[in-house]
Amino acid sequence: MRQYEINIYSDSNIKDITVFKFNNVTNTQEIMDILLKGELEWSIVNARIVYDDRHLLTAATQAIHQLCSKGKLSTNNIHTELIYRMSPTTNIRDSIKTFGLNIEDNVFYIVLFGATEERIDRVRTLVKGDELKEEESDEALKKQYYPNKYFDSQIARKLYRLPAAAAAAVTNNTSNDNLQLLYKDILNSMAIKGHL
Amino acid sequence: MTDIVVEPTAVPPTVAAAKTVVDLTSLGAMLLSQGAEAKTYRFALNGLDCIVKERFSKKYRHQQLDTKIQAKRHLMEIRNINKCRKHQIPVPALYFVDNISNRIYMEMVDGITVKSFIQQQQQSTNSNNSNEILIKLCLEIGRLIAKMHDNGVIHGDLTTSNILLKNDDIGGNSKIGELLVFIDFGLSYVSVLVEDKAVDLYVLERAFLSTHPDSEQMFDQVIKGYADYSASKTKATLSKLDQVRLRGRKKLAFG
Protein backbone atom coordinates (compact mmCIF):
# COMPACT_ATOMS: atom_id res chain seq x y z
CA MET A 1 0.00 0.00 0.00
CA ARG A 2 1.36 3.35 -0.99
CA GLN A 3 -0.11 6.79 -0.57
CA TYR A 4 0.42 9.80 -2.76
CA GLU A 5 -0.66 13.37 -2.57
CA ILE A 6 -2.25 15.24 -5.46
CA ASN A 7 -1.98 18.93 -4.82
CA ILE A 8 -2.33 20.89 -8.02
CA TYR A 9 -5.96 21.83 -7.41
CA SER A 10 -6.73 23.74 -4.27
CA ASP A 11 -10.51 23.45 -4.14
CA SER A 12 -10.68 19.77 -4.83
CA ASN A 13 -11.67 17.84 -1.70
CA ILE A 14 -9.77 14.81 -2.92
CA LYS A 15 -6.14 15.29 -2.08
CA ASP A 16 -4.59 11.87 -1.94
CA ILE A 17 -4.76 8.43 -3.45
CA THR A 18 -3.86 5.05 -2.04
CA VAL A 19 -2.49 2.36 -4.30
CA PHE A 20 -2.61 -1.38 -3.54
CA LYS A 21 -1.27 -4.12 -5.71
CA PHE A 22 -2.43 -7.68 -5.28
CA ASN A 23 -1.39 -10.88 -6.96
CA ASN A 24 -2.54 -14.51 -6.69
CA VAL A 25 -6.04 -13.33 -5.98
CA THR A 26 -8.40 -16.26 -5.64
CA ASN A 27 -11.75 -14.56 -5.25
CA THR A 28 -11.94 -12.33 -8.33
CA GLN A 29 -15.46 -13.57 -9.02
CA GLU A 30 -16.64 -12.52 -5.57
CA ILE A 31 -15.03 -9.07 -5.88
CA MET A 32 -16.51 -8.67 -9.33
CA ASP A 33 -19.98 -9.45 -8.02
CA ILE A 34 -19.76 -6.89 -5.24
CA LEU A 35 -18.21 -4.37 -7.62
CA LEU A 36 -21.03 -4.73 -10.12
CA LYS A 37 -23.56 -4.06 -7.36
CA GLY A 38 -21.85 -0.71 -6.99
CA GLU A 39 -20.94 -1.24 -3.37
CA LEU A 40 -17.19 -0.86 -3.64
CA GLU A 41 -15.68 2.59 -3.71
CA TRP A 42 -12.50 1.37 -5.37
CA SER A 43 -10.90 1.63 -8.75
CA ILE A 44 -9.67 -1.76 -9.79
CA VAL A 45 -7.21 -1.47 -12.64
CA ASN A 46 -5.91 -4.15 -14.95
CA ALA A 47 -2.27 -4.63 -13.93
CA ARG A 48 -1.08 -5.59 -17.43
CA ILE A 49 -1.22 -2.01 -18.67
CA VAL A 50 0.01 -0.10 -15.63
CA TYR A 51 3.59 0.93 -16.21
CA ASP A 52 4.29 2.33 -12.75
CA ASP A 53 2.57 4.30 -10.02
CA ARG A 54 3.00 7.58 -11.91
CA HIS A 55 0.78 6.17 -14.59
CA LEU A 56 -2.05 5.76 -12.07
CA LEU A 57 -1.28 9.15 -10.57
CA THR A 58 -1.57 10.84 -13.94
CA ALA A 59 -4.95 9.23 -14.51
CA ALA A 60 -6.03 10.29 -11.01
CA THR A 61 -4.91 13.86 -11.68
CA GLN A 62 -6.90 13.87 -14.89
CA ALA A 63 -9.95 12.58 -13.08
CA ILE A 64 -9.69 15.37 -10.52
CA HIS A 65 -9.07 17.87 -13.31
CA GLN A 66 -12.28 16.75 -14.97
CA LEU A 67 -14.15 17.26 -11.72
CA CYS A 68 -12.69 20.73 -11.16
CA SER A 69 -13.04 22.03 -14.71
CA LYS A 70 -16.49 20.76 -15.64
CA GLY A 71 -17.94 20.41 -12.16
CA LYS A 72 -19.00 16.90 -13.03
CA LEU A 73 -17.38 13.69 -14.13
CA SER A 74 -17.74 11.86 -17.42
CA THR A 75 -18.62 8.67 -15.62
CA ASN A 76 -20.74 7.93 -12.55
CA ASN A 77 -18.09 8.29 -9.88
CA ILE A 78 -14.46 9.22 -9.37
CA HIS A 79 -13.42 5.56 -9.28
CA THR A 80 -14.73 4.66 -12.69
CA GLU A 81 -13.45 8.04 -13.89
CA LEU A 82 -9.90 6.94 -13.06
CA ILE A 83 -10.27 3.79 -15.13
CA TYR A 84 -11.84 5.81 -17.94
CA ARG A 85 -8.91 8.25 -17.83
CA MET A 86 -6.45 5.36 -18.16
CA SER A 87 -7.96 4.55 -21.50
CA PRO A 88 -7.23 6.36 -24.78
CA THR A 89 -10.77 5.99 -26.11
CA THR A 90 -13.82 8.05 -25.26
CA ASN A 91 -15.97 4.97 -25.03
CA ILE A 92 -16.72 4.54 -21.33
CA ARG A 93 -18.08 1.02 -21.55
CA ASP A 94 -15.09 -0.24 -23.53
CA SER A 95 -12.64 1.52 -21.25
CA ILE A 96 -13.99 -0.03 -18.12
CA LYS A 97 -14.16 -3.44 -19.70
CA THR A 98 -10.57 -3.47 -20.88
CA PHE A 99 -8.82 -1.30 -18.31
CA GLY A 100 -10.87 -2.36 -15.30
CA LEU A 101 -11.19 -5.72 -13.59
CA ASN A 102 -11.56 -8.77 -15.79
CA ILE A 103 -12.98 -11.99 -14.46
CA GLU A 104 -9.88 -14.06 -15.26
CA ASP A 105 -7.44 -11.62 -13.62
CA ASN A 106 -5.60 -12.60 -10.51
CA VAL A 107 -3.27 -9.60 -10.51
CA PHE A 108 -4.59 -6.09 -10.25
CA TYR A 109 -4.22 -2.64 -8.78
CA ILE A 110 -6.71 -1.13 -6.38
CA VAL A 111 -6.81 2.64 -6.05
CA LEU A 112 -8.71 4.52 -3.37
CA PHE A 113 -9.34 8.25 -3.35
CA GLY A 114 -9.11 9.89 0.05
CA ALA A 115 -8.82 6.58 1.87
CA THR A 116 -9.71 6.12 5.53
CA GLU A 117 -8.43 3.39 7.86
CA GLU A 118 -11.77 1.69 7.62
CA ARG A 119 -11.76 1.51 3.85
CA ILE A 120 -8.19 0.25 3.79
CA ASP A 121 -9.19 -2.56 6.16
CA ARG A 122 -12.12 -3.42 3.92
CA VAL A 123 -9.76 -3.89 0.96
CA ARG A 124 -7.52 -6.18 2.98
CA THR A 125 -10.31 -8.32 4.34
CA LEU A 126 -12.22 -8.65 1.09
CA VAL A 127 -9.41 -9.41 -1.33
CA LYS A 128 -8.04 -12.92 -0.86
CA GLY A 129 -4.57 -12.72 -2.33
CA ASP A 130 -1.05 -11.50 -1.69
CA GLU A 131 -0.62 -7.81 -1.28
CA LEU A 132 2.76 -6.82 -2.68
CA LYS A 133 4.40 -5.14 0.27
CA GLU A 134 8.00 -6.21 0.12
CA GLU A 135 8.92 -3.65 -2.55
CA GLU A 136 7.93 -0.68 -0.48
CA SER A 137 10.96 -0.44 1.71
CA ASP A 138 13.25 -0.33 -1.31
CA GLU A 139 14.45 3.26 -1.79
CA ALA A 140 15.67 2.68 -5.34
CA LEU A 141 12.23 1.43 -6.33
CA LYS A 142 10.59 4.32 -4.56
CA LYS A 143 12.54 6.75 -6.70
CA GLN A 144 11.26 5.04 -9.82
CA TYR A 145 7.70 4.93 -8.54
CA TYR A 146 7.61 1.14 -8.38
CA PRO A 147 7.77 -0.10 -11.98
CA ASN A 148 5.21 -2.82 -12.45
CA LYS A 149 6.69 -6.19 -13.35
CA TYR A 150 3.32 -7.39 -14.65
CA PHE A 151 3.31 -4.66 -17.28
CA ASP A 152 2.92 -6.28 -20.68
CA SER A 153 4.14 -4.07 -23.51
CA GLN A 154 2.39 -6.19 -26.15
CA ILE A 155 -1.00 -5.82 -24.50
CA ALA A 156 -0.37 -2.15 -23.74
CA ARG A 157 0.51 -1.45 -27.37
CA LYS A 158 -2.68 -3.09 -28.47
CA LEU A 159 -4.94 -1.37 -25.98
CA TYR A 160 -3.39 2.05 -26.48
CA ARG A 161 -3.41 1.51 -30.24
CA LEU A 162 0.26 2.23 -30.63
CA PRO A 163 1.64 0.41 -33.64
CA ALA A 164 4.96 -1.31 -33.10
CA ALA A 165 6.20 0.36 -36.30
CA ALA A 166 6.86 3.57 -34.41
CA ALA A 167 9.32 1.86 -32.14
CA ALA A 168 10.85 -0.19 -34.92
CA ALA A 169 11.77 3.00 -36.77
CA VAL A 170 14.26 3.76 -34.05
CA THR A 171 16.21 0.59 -34.54
CA ASN A 172 19.42 1.13 -32.66
CA ASN A 173 17.71 1.84 -29.35
CA THR A 174 17.99 -0.57 -26.49
CA SER A 175 14.86 -2.26 -25.22
CA ASN A 176 14.82 -0.07 -22.11
CA ASP A 177 14.76 3.02 -24.32
CA ASN A 178 11.91 1.49 -26.28
CA LEU A 179 10.00 0.89 -23.10
CA GLN A 180 10.51 4.50 -22.04
CA LEU A 181 9.31 5.59 -25.46
CA LEU A 182 6.24 3.41 -25.14
CA TYR A 183 5.52 4.88 -21.72
CA LYS A 184 5.68 8.40 -23.12
CA ASP A 185 3.39 7.40 -25.97
CA ILE A 186 0.95 5.96 -23.47
CA LEU A 187 0.91 9.12 -21.37
CA ASN A 188 0.61 11.16 -24.54
CA SER A 189 -2.45 9.27 -25.71
CA MET A 190 -4.03 9.68 -22.28
CA ALA A 191 -3.31 13.41 -22.28
CA ILE A 192 -4.78 14.18 -25.69
CA LYS A 193 -7.97 12.27 -25.04
CA GLY A 194 -10.95 14.53 -25.60
CA HIS A 195 -8.88 17.22 -27.29
CA LEU A 196 -9.03 15.92 -30.83
CA MET B 1 -41.07 53.58 -19.72
CA THR B 2 -39.78 50.12 -19.30
CA ASP B 3 -36.87 49.52 -17.04
CA ILE B 4 -33.64 48.73 -18.68
CA VAL B 5 -32.80 45.20 -17.64
CA VAL B 6 -29.13 44.49 -17.45
CA GLU B 7 -28.49 40.93 -18.43
CA PRO B 8 -26.21 39.19 -15.95
CA THR B 9 -23.00 38.51 -17.75
CA ALA B 10 -21.52 35.07 -17.54
CA VAL B 11 -18.52 34.77 -15.28
CA PRO B 12 -15.50 34.64 -17.55
CA PRO B 13 -13.75 31.29 -17.33
CA THR B 14 -10.51 32.85 -16.14
CA VAL B 15 -12.24 34.27 -13.07
CA ALA B 16 -14.10 31.05 -12.35
CA ALA B 17 -10.89 29.11 -12.50
CA ALA B 18 -8.89 31.47 -10.34
CA LYS B 19 -9.83 29.82 -7.09
CA THR B 20 -8.94 26.34 -8.31
CA VAL B 21 -5.57 27.15 -9.78
CA VAL B 22 -2.57 26.72 -7.56
CA ASP B 23 0.49 28.75 -8.33
CA LEU B 24 3.07 26.28 -9.56
CA THR B 25 6.00 27.99 -7.90
CA SER B 26 4.39 27.35 -4.52
CA LEU B 27 4.57 23.65 -5.34
CA GLY B 28 8.25 23.83 -6.09
CA ALA B 29 8.22 24.61 -9.79
CA MET B 30 11.15 26.51 -11.24
CA LEU B 31 10.47 29.33 -13.67
CA LEU B 32 12.58 28.74 -16.75
CA SER B 33 11.56 31.55 -19.02
CA GLN B 34 8.80 33.94 -19.79
CA GLY B 35 7.76 34.92 -23.25
CA ALA B 36 5.09 37.19 -24.63
CA GLU B 37 2.51 34.49 -24.49
CA ALA B 38 3.40 31.98 -21.87
CA LYS B 39 5.64 31.11 -18.99
CA THR B 40 7.54 27.88 -18.87
CA TYR B 41 8.29 26.07 -15.67
CA ARG B 42 10.13 22.95 -14.81
CA PHE B 43 7.98 20.90 -12.51
CA ALA B 44 7.72 17.38 -11.18
CA LEU B 45 4.14 16.32 -11.83
CA ASN B 46 3.62 13.23 -9.69
CA GLY B 47 7.26 12.40 -10.13
CA LEU B 48 7.32 12.96 -13.88
CA ASP B 49 9.98 15.46 -14.84
CA CYS B 50 8.14 17.90 -17.04
CA ILE B 51 8.04 21.31 -18.61
CA VAL B 52 4.88 23.28 -17.96
CA LYS B 53 3.79 25.83 -20.49
CA GLU B 54 1.33 28.16 -18.88
CA ARG B 55 -0.49 30.72 -20.97
CA PHE B 56 -1.39 33.82 -19.05
CA SER B 57 -4.16 36.22 -19.87
CA LYS B 58 -3.26 39.51 -21.43
CA LYS B 59 -4.89 42.35 -19.62
CA TYR B 60 -4.70 44.75 -22.55
CA ARG B 61 -6.87 42.53 -24.68
CA HIS B 62 -10.62 42.38 -24.39
CA GLN B 63 -11.32 39.52 -22.03
CA GLN B 64 -13.64 37.57 -24.29
CA LEU B 65 -11.27 37.88 -27.20
CA ASP B 66 -8.37 36.91 -25.00
CA THR B 67 -10.10 33.79 -23.74
CA LYS B 68 -10.98 32.82 -27.28
CA ILE B 69 -7.49 33.31 -28.69
CA GLN B 70 -5.93 31.48 -25.79
CA ALA B 71 -8.28 28.53 -25.98
CA LYS B 72 -7.69 28.24 -29.70
CA ARG B 73 -3.90 28.36 -29.47
CA HIS B 74 -3.94 25.96 -26.56
CA LEU B 75 -5.99 23.44 -28.51
CA MET B 76 -4.06 23.82 -31.74
CA GLU B 77 -0.82 23.31 -29.90
CA ILE B 78 -2.06 20.07 -28.39
CA ARG B 79 -3.50 18.78 -31.63
CA ASN B 80 -0.50 19.58 -33.74
CA ILE B 81 2.03 18.21 -31.28
CA ASN B 82 0.04 15.01 -31.25
CA LYS B 83 -0.21 14.95 -35.02
CA CYS B 84 3.54 15.36 -35.36
CA ARG B 85 4.12 12.64 -32.83
CA LYS B 86 1.86 10.32 -34.74
CA HIS B 87 3.93 10.85 -37.87
CA GLN B 88 7.25 10.38 -36.07
CA ILE B 89 8.34 13.98 -36.18
CA PRO B 90 10.27 14.52 -32.95
CA VAL B 91 8.22 16.59 -30.52
CA PRO B 92 7.96 16.41 -26.74
CA ALA B 93 5.39 13.96 -25.38
CA LEU B 94 2.38 15.48 -23.68
CA TYR B 95 1.83 14.29 -20.15
CA PHE B 96 -1.20 16.21 -19.06
CA VAL B 97 -3.36 18.97 -20.48
CA ASP B 98 -4.97 21.33 -18.01
CA ASN B 99 -7.80 23.35 -19.48
CA ILE B 100 -8.55 25.22 -16.27
CA SER B 101 -5.33 27.14 -16.14
CA ASN B 102 -4.28 26.70 -19.78
CA ARG B 103 -1.29 24.66 -18.84
CA ILE B 104 0.36 21.99 -20.90
CA TYR B 105 2.57 19.54 -19.06
CA MET B 106 5.04 17.98 -21.43
CA GLU B 107 8.13 15.90 -21.48
CA MET B 108 11.30 17.53 -20.27
CA VAL B 109 13.80 17.64 -23.11
CA ASP B 110 17.31 17.89 -21.83
CA GLY B 111 19.24 19.90 -24.36
CA ILE B 112 20.06 23.23 -25.89
CA THR B 113 18.42 25.24 -28.62
CA VAL B 114 19.73 24.94 -32.14
CA LYS B 115 20.36 28.69 -31.91
CA SER B 116 22.91 28.34 -29.15
CA PHE B 117 24.36 25.22 -30.74
CA ILE B 118 25.03 27.07 -33.98
CA GLN B 119 26.57 29.96 -32.05
CA GLN B 120 28.81 27.55 -30.15
CA GLN B 121 29.89 25.88 -33.35
CA GLN B 122 30.53 29.15 -35.12
CA GLN B 123 32.70 30.35 -32.28
CA SER B 124 34.75 27.20 -32.05
CA THR B 125 35.39 26.91 -35.78
CA ASN B 126 36.24 29.99 -37.77
CA SER B 127 35.18 28.78 -41.16
CA ASN B 128 31.62 28.34 -40.00
CA ASN B 129 29.94 27.46 -43.24
CA SER B 130 32.11 24.53 -44.04
CA ASN B 131 31.37 23.01 -40.67
CA GLU B 132 30.29 19.47 -41.38
CA ILE B 133 28.12 19.00 -38.35
CA LEU B 134 26.11 22.13 -39.07
CA ILE B 135 25.51 21.05 -42.65
CA LYS B 136 24.21 17.72 -41.45
CA LEU B 137 22.03 19.44 -38.89
CA CYS B 138 20.52 21.84 -41.42
CA LEU B 139 19.81 19.06 -43.91
CA GLU B 140 17.97 17.17 -41.21
CA ILE B 141 16.00 20.26 -40.13
CA GLY B 142 14.90 20.73 -43.74
CA ARG B 143 13.89 17.12 -44.08
CA LEU B 144 11.81 17.19 -40.90
CA ILE B 145 10.07 20.42 -41.87
CA ALA B 146 9.20 18.85 -45.21
CA LYS B 147 7.80 15.85 -43.39
CA MET B 148 5.76 18.11 -41.15
CA HIS B 149 4.39 20.02 -44.14
CA ASP B 150 3.66 16.80 -45.96
CA ASN B 151 1.41 15.83 -43.07
CA GLY B 152 -0.39 19.14 -43.17
CA VAL B 153 1.10 20.75 -40.08
CA ILE B 154 2.33 24.33 -40.44
CA HIS B 155 4.46 25.25 -37.46
CA GLY B 156 3.86 28.99 -37.81
CA ASP B 157 6.82 30.12 -35.76
CA LEU B 158 9.88 28.33 -37.04
CA THR B 159 13.04 29.82 -35.58
CA THR B 160 16.29 28.29 -34.47
CA SER B 161 15.27 28.83 -30.84
CA ASN B 162 12.16 26.73 -31.36
CA ILE B 163 14.16 23.70 -32.35
CA LEU B 164 16.02 21.88 -29.61
CA LEU B 165 18.96 19.59 -29.74
CA LYS B 166 18.95 16.83 -27.15
CA ASN B 167 21.93 16.56 -24.91
CA ASP B 168 23.03 13.03 -25.75
CA ASP B 169 26.60 12.93 -27.02
CA ILE B 170 26.63 15.48 -29.79
CA GLY B 171 30.14 14.41 -30.67
CA GLY B 172 28.79 11.32 -32.42
CA ASN B 173 27.51 13.44 -35.27
CA SER B 174 26.37 10.57 -37.46
CA LYS B 175 22.95 10.55 -35.82
CA ILE B 176 22.52 14.22 -35.09
CA GLY B 177 19.14 14.12 -36.80
CA GLU B 178 17.77 11.92 -34.06
CA LEU B 179 18.54 14.54 -31.47
CA LEU B 180 16.34 17.27 -32.92
CA VAL B 181 13.08 18.16 -31.19
CA PHE B 182 10.57 20.72 -32.41
CA ILE B 183 8.83 22.81 -29.78
CA ASP B 184 6.37 25.68 -29.44
CA PHE B 185 3.40 24.82 -31.63
CA GLY B 186 1.42 27.75 -30.21
CA LEU B 187 1.00 29.37 -33.62
CA SER B 188 0.67 26.19 -35.59
CA TYR B 189 -2.25 25.30 -37.77
CA VAL B 190 -3.33 22.69 -40.24
CA SER B 191 -3.08 23.51 -43.92
CA VAL B 192 -2.08 21.88 -47.15
CA LEU B 193 -1.76 25.11 -49.14
CA VAL B 194 1.51 25.74 -50.89
CA GLU B 195 1.30 29.39 -49.86
CA ASP B 196 1.25 28.53 -46.13
CA LYS B 197 4.15 26.15 -46.43
CA ALA B 198 6.22 28.67 -48.35
CA VAL B 199 5.53 31.38 -45.78
CA ASP B 200 6.50 28.96 -43.01
CA LEU B 201 9.86 28.43 -44.70
CA TYR B 202 10.22 32.14 -45.32
CA VAL B 203 9.74 32.84 -41.61
CA LEU B 204 12.53 30.38 -40.85
CA GLU B 205 14.77 32.00 -43.44
CA ARG B 206 14.27 35.45 -41.94
CA ALA B 207 14.89 34.06 -38.46
CA PHE B 208 17.98 32.22 -39.63
CA LEU B 209 19.54 35.20 -41.35
CA SER B 210 18.76 37.65 -38.60
CA THR B 211 20.00 35.52 -35.69
CA HIS B 212 23.03 33.96 -37.32
CA PRO B 213 25.46 36.06 -39.33
CA ASP B 214 26.74 34.51 -42.56
CA SER B 215 24.26 31.72 -42.50
CA GLU B 216 23.07 31.87 -46.12
CA GLN B 217 24.80 28.61 -46.92
CA MET B 218 23.31 26.97 -43.87
CA PHE B 219 19.81 27.92 -44.93
CA ASP B 220 20.59 26.61 -48.40
CA GLN B 221 21.20 23.27 -46.73
CA VAL B 222 17.81 23.50 -45.05
CA ILE B 223 16.24 24.04 -48.46
CA LYS B 224 18.26 21.16 -49.85
CA GLY B 225 17.07 18.89 -47.07
CA TYR B 226 13.53 20.06 -47.69
CA ALA B 227 13.78 19.24 -51.38
CA ASP B 228 15.43 15.89 -50.69
CA TYR B 229 12.44 14.70 -48.70
CA SER B 230 10.37 14.32 -51.80
CA ALA B 231 11.09 16.22 -54.99
CA SER B 232 7.58 15.92 -56.34
CA LYS B 233 5.89 17.11 -53.17
CA THR B 234 8.15 20.03 -52.35
CA LYS B 235 8.77 21.46 -55.80
CA ALA B 236 5.71 23.70 -55.78
CA THR B 237 6.48 25.02 -52.29
CA LEU B 238 10.01 25.95 -53.19
CA SER B 239 9.04 27.84 -56.31
CA LYS B 240 6.40 29.61 -54.23
CA LEU B 241 9.11 30.51 -51.74
CA ASP B 242 10.83 32.58 -54.42
CA GLN B 243 7.64 34.57 -54.90
CA VAL B 244 7.20 35.03 -51.16
CA ARG B 245 10.76 36.33 -50.88
CA LEU B 246 9.92 39.10 -53.32
CA ARG B 247 6.79 40.28 -51.58
CA GLY B 248 7.27 39.33 -47.93
CA ARG B 249 5.21 37.28 -45.56
CA LYS B 250 1.87 38.96 -46.17
CA LYS B 251 0.00 38.28 -49.34
CA LEU B 252 -1.04 41.34 -51.27
CA ALA B 253 -4.75 41.68 -50.89
CA PHE B 254 -5.28 43.94 -53.87
CA GLY B 255 -4.00 44.59 -57.36
TrEMBL record, chain A:
Pfam families: CGI-121. The keyword tRNA processing applies. The keyword Nucleus applies. Signal peptide: none annotated. Keywords: Nucleus, tRNA processing. It is found in: Nucleus. Belongs to the CGI121/TPRKB family. This is EKC/KEOPS complex subunit CGI121. The lineage of its organism: Eukaryota, Amoebozoa, Evosea, Eumycetozoa, Dictyostelia.
TrEMBL record, chain B:
Its EC number is 2.7.11.1. GO terms for molecular function: ATP binding; hydrolase activity; protein serine/threonine kinase activity. Signal peptide: none annotated. InterPro entries: Bud32, Kinase-like_dom_sf, Prot_kinase_dom, Tyr_kinase_AS. The keyword ATP-binding applies. Keywords: ATP-binding, Hydrolase, Kinase, Nucleotide-binding, Nucleus, Phosphoprotein, Serine/threonine-protein kinase, Transferase, tRNA processing. One of its GO terms (cellular component) is EKC/KEOPS complex. One of its GO terms (biological process) is tRNA processing. Belongs to the protein kinase superfamily. BUD32 family. PANTHER family: EKC_KEOPS COMPLEX SUBUNIT TP53RK (PTHR12209:SF0), NON-SPECIFIC SERINE/THREONINE PROTEIN KINASE (PTHR12209). This is non-specific serine/threonine protein kinase. It comes from Heterostelium pallidum (strain ATCC 26659 / Pp 5 / PN500) (Cellular slime mold).
